[in-house]
Amino acid sequence: MPCSVCPEDSARLEYPEGGQTMRRDSPMDLYLAGFRLHCIAEAKSPRTVIWYEHKLRIFRDYLRRQFQVDDPAQITADHIRAFLVHMRDEVHLGELNPHRHPQRELLSPHTVRGYFRAVRAFFTWLMSEEYIEKDPCARIHRPKAPQNVVPTFDEEQIRRLLAVPDRRRRNGFRDRTILLLLLDTGMRLSELTGLRIGDLHLEDGYVRVRGKGAKERLVPRGSKVRKALWQYIIRYRPEPKHPGIEAVFLNHDGTPMKPEGVYRMVVNRGRQASITGVRCSPHTFRHTFAVAFLRNGGDVFTLQRILGHTSLVVTRMYCNLNDNDIQAQHRQCGPVDRLGLG
User: Fold this and answer.
1) Is position 330 annotated as part of the catalytic site?
2) Helix or strand (DSSP H, E) at 33
3) HSE of 69, CA atoms in CB hemisphere, 13 A
């Protein structure tokens, strides 16, 4: 069955990255355009759409270069396996990103798994629309990736990080408030930069966030974070550049902070605090919150709701405890010692 994207329209369809106009005679590009429209219609976030496009474009280019294949109906399981082996054994970190310098390290198993996820989603859509008769991903096992314990900040590192911003200055107070909010809620970077003034609910003890898939949830926050947010809004938040700007965290010129700006700020603050042994990023705050929540007696089901995960499996990836944590939990909960047996 032909793709519903009309050939006459194909010359007008473009990918956002690189501005590459699709070829009129390319079935692969037409189907990729159809998959993009499907993702948009399913209310996938712009970042997710770009994520799929980036990975599927690399898959498309590999098939053209290596096998001269440009039609999804001709793609076999062996083509996909060859692509995954190529990504695992031959592609180096940063090589596919024009904004980064290639490094010696190969792609991580988790990154290779991400490429397979994108390819599998594409063929799942093709099958559901009956554009192909056989799914080449059906008999391919998901690439293995180790379940490593993600390093998190320790208490000393957190104190050093929070001591770096100068609270007497506008940006310093803003940055410290952001760090406190990330640590106390575990929210995603995109959720933090998407916060609006009306989402703070300072009197009610929670923050309203918009997570993946445009899903809203209420995230609790503590009294100290409430105080920091209140002081920031009242005393330190710049005047918005335009009346319609409702973003909580603003640059000095009154424009909303973007995710990349917050990311750079966290990295720079980590460098100023001489943080080593752990990646200083907003996502590390998310992992640190998850582990601290469990260490302090929280349960994994509540944690799942706070983090906004639809699957408990994903939550468990965020809260792998180290050996010392496991031993401490056993000392507290082990039945033999608690009952005085033996």
Assistant:
1) no
2) helix 27-41
3) 16
Catalytic site residue 318? yes
Residue 64 dihedral angles phi and psi, to the nearest 5°: -65, -45
The pair of three-digit structure tokens given for residue 252, joined into one six-digit string: 């000095």
Which residue is catalytic, options 188, 226, 237, 287? 188
Q: Please check whether residue 167 is in contact with residue 228, taking contact to mean a CB–CB distance below 8 angstroms.
A: no
Half-sphere exposure of 288 (CA within 13 A, CB side): 21
Q: Say how far apart CA 219 and CA 211 lie, in whole Å.
A: 11
Handedness of CA 79, 76, 58, 61 (dihedral sign): positive
Domains of the chain: 7-128 (no CATH), 155-333 (1.10.443.10)
Active-site residue flag, 286: yes
Q: What is the pTM of this model?
A: 0.71
**Neighbouring residues of 245: CB distance < 8 A, sequence distance ≥ 6:** 254, 255, 256
Given 113, 208, 309, 316, the catalytic residue:
309
3-state secondary structure of 257: coil
Could you give the CA distance from residue 323 to residue 331 in angstroms, rounded to a whole number? 12
Q: What is the pLDDT tens value at each position of the chain, 342 positions in all?
A: 444 444 334 333 443 444 444 455 689 999 999 999 999 999 888 889 999 999 999 999 999 999 999 999 999 999 999 999 999 999 987 777 665 666 778 898 989 999 999 999 999 999 999 999 999 999 999 998 777 677 899 999 999 999 999 999 999 999 999 999 999 999 999 999 999 999 999 999 899 999 876 789 999 999 999 999 999 999 999 999 999 999 999 999 999 999 999 999 999 999 999 999 999 999 999 999 999 998 888 888 999 999 998 888 878 777 666 566 666 666 766 666 666 665
Residue-level length of the chain: 342
Active-site option among 117, 120, 283, 316: 283
Rg (CA), the chain: 24
Distance of CA 197 to the CA centre of its chain: 23
CB-based contacts of 206: which residues, under 8 Å, 6+ apart?
Answer: 218, 219, 220, 221
